């Protein structure tokens, strides 16, 4: 569905992405791993068009994303959902307004329909309809993540992008969020691309993984092959995570 070829992105003298080659196939559940500050979030934003690459191409089903304009671009945007690392909820809007934001902005649905849509999506992430009338500041961190996921799936997307969906959450809430992701992907039949540093969770929700190091994809393959990967950066990353969180295979 999405193919990156030779994608680069720099900020002044700082080269962050240095020639990214990556393919996301229909039906994939891919997790991107890498050290802090390696450019994972930037790569994701480049994939969905929030950032333009300096060089290289991002192809969406064979079409150069930089050439998509107007209705064609909006048609693609409607096909993906995004959960930002820190939730990205609008503080001045209620939960139901946040979830139905895209549809309300386009005038596609009425307020009553938006409330109904929000209640349906809240149910998927195991939250009651009464949460819809709350504001983000009234929610716990775990609830904000679940509302962010509800917004991401509000358009029944074909592709789901999730940036550190469990960052800052306790282990119990992390498991809940991963269950919600698996449930959402399964019910939508969606392709997913997830950034996470939680290796136990990463292996639960993916069938493919890729390693980003110093601006390049140094390894990619089946999740089942990760533990046996010969790439030195993958080995160092796994060893570091294992040292902090125990046996990765548990």
Describe the structure.
The structure is a single chain. The chain has helices at 40-48, 70-77, 95-99, 101-106, 111-124, 141-152, 171-188, 199-205, 232-245; strands at residues 2-11, 14-24, 29-34, 55-60, 63-64, 80-83, 159-163, 191-195, 208-213, 216-222. With 250 residues, it is of the alpha/beta class. The protein folds into 2 domains: 2-79 and 158-245, P-loop containing nucleotide triphosphate hydrolases (Rossmann fold), CATH 3.40.50; 89-156, no CATH class. Helix 5 packs across helix 6 and helix 6 (141-152) runs parallel beside helix 7. The longest helix is centred in the C-terminal third of the chain and has 18 residues, at 171-188. The radius of gyration is 18 Å and the shape is globular.
